[in-house]
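forwarding from the other thread:

> can someone predict this with alpha-D-galactopyranose?

sure thing
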Amino acid sequence: MPIIFNKKQQVFHLKNEKVSYIIGIEKNRYLSHLYFGAPLTSYHRVNQAYLVERSFAPYFDPQDKNYATGTMLLENSTNGGGDYRVANYQIRNEAGQNFADFHYDSYKIYDGKKKIEGLPSIQGDKITSLEITLVEKNQQLEMILVYNLMEDLGVITRHTIFKNYSQNKVYLENAGSCLIDFPDSQYDFLHLYGSHASEAHPERFPLHRGIQEVNSLRGASSHQHHPFAALLKPETTEFSGEVFAFHFIYSGNFIIQAEVDQYETTRLQMGIHPDTFEWQLNPEETFETPEAVLNYSNEGLNGMSQNFHQLYLHYLSPKFWENKRRPVLLNTWEGNYFNFTEEELLQQSQVVKKAGIELFVLDDGWFGKRDSDHSSLGDWKSHKKKFSEGIIPFAKKINEEGLKFGLWFEPEMISPESELAKNHPDWAFHLKNETQYQSRNQWVLDLSRTDVQDYLIEMLRYYLSSGAIQYIKWDMNRHLSQVGNEIMPPLQQKELAHRHILGLYRILDTITTEFPEVLFENCSGGGGRFDPGMMAYMAQNWTSDNSDGPSRTFIQGGYSYLYPPVMMGAHVSAVPNHQLGRSASLATRSHIAFFGNFGYELDLSKLTPEEMEQVKKDVAFYQKHRELFQFGTFHRLENSWQGNSCAWLIQNEKEAMILYFNLLASPHRPLHYLKTKYLFNDALYENQETKEVFSGSELNQAGLLVSPYSQDFVTKIFHFKKV
Ligand code: GLA
């Protein structure tokens, strides 16, 4: 049993070959956090919490002044009882009191894992679960701390369940998913920050005293901060050292905070952001929080990434697509924007087919009167002038050419200039007597409403049941503002931001369950909502609206901390690049896009015959090695943000591809050996270009001489086969 309860010691030990996580019950009352790290064969409370009377530390028992929550290392805590650090929950009762004191009651250990009601969660066979029930006797409330241990990964997930057994309402002002106290503060804080078209930049800094946090209050997980943070030992690198990583399976407002207190301990807390949240919990009702992923690696950041990649591919992402090869696609956006006719698209699709591409994706501009971003969101009917017979007959024509067909939707949005807005003015979020703010000329539909959810489900069902659409790009191009409606009672308006996300998940769950074979690509202006919540429904994500290859070494590299290449859309686009004006070579653009879910986003008919020949070769090369590119094991060897080069390795049992990318050329051209680190040491590898043979160990340790380049932004792909 990988989760053990030692009754004598009052200790829960969650353990596999990669990790141990240990919780103590202290005097039958509070839960202490005892250990998180490399696996321990057994545990006997060697680092037992040191309870000593401290000044300015309120206690509940005058006979036992040492037992004070403010000085303990805990698994769970709130404000109001003497623990002044960040809280994991806050409950207000009908008397307006803000203190709920939960004590240990009982536990359950079982094989498998339950679903979380209405929310995406990790699922799989090789999981063991622990539920620790705490009770608040005075107020008749129950809190269950749920822990799940993956059998084969250094991963534990956590979430919290609140139950109200009383006759009274209570209000959850804060409902966190995870709190954990570390005994020291010698850590670096790592997180991913960014903006639209510039996502997932790693930032690492030593923890300082007080609170450091990342968050989103934008109604979506956001480009600005990813719902991820990790505590690293100062000596930790990509290749070695301890990492304690935290990732949130949620697509709305979140907070992840680390607090270093007066005793140099560190508290890490993660959950829905309490500033835009409150929940009225009625008698007999239950509230479940989203799930937190806790990932431990003592093999550096690449070790952390391996845990995340395996977890998301095998325990989260849609089962149907788990091992399915993804088609090479052409997306019409950057090649056409809103300006196209059916005839032009049909001509383009013939060139697409000739290039060997498999999926033709029609992006924005196909519906209502959508000739710019000023109208028609919500009016999901074919643009009559562009498609005389309608979009489904057009999709069928594309299918008849031997191409799969994909279509863009932005279901959560509504244009003020739309039929839908005229017919249902109250369907967008709004505040009474206030002007509705726009962003990209649009408002946000209020998905807390079941009628709005049902409208979208019916609309999507109509398109997908035609059988002519094999792929959907699901976009979301603004953040929420003025979140309100006139349906929820005034005191429950703060429930809307979370109810909106629950509504979104209901739509996604319904549609992806009914149409599992349709490939969904998640998008929010690129990576604005590239979070594990969305990835539970959609197998891949459009990584960034920045399609410039060199920039992508930063963006795909940053996201690779969390997601494998098969989850990241990567397209070759035109030069000069539309976002940056940079003109990287076709080889550079293709090589970098190979290390993602490969596709094109330009009008192929504008290429020269030589370029077109190269495109055909690149498509064929990717298809030949698709299994490796999409399902190989990925490691970062060098990072663009740490030097003048980037190098990635993807390998399986038989072969390996290495991308080397040189940022800026340098006149003195120093020698540069690229150490492959992760090839099989004892195997021999043949370089497919030069036919030279090297041992894995020499490539790993001595390294591959990468030529000094006399040009900016050049790439080279090394292809090695085991001999
Ligand atoms: C967003 C997406 C783009 C494209 C446009 C269409 O910006 O990220 O890829 O689909 O919307 O309007």
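The longest strand covers residues 170-182. thats all i got for now
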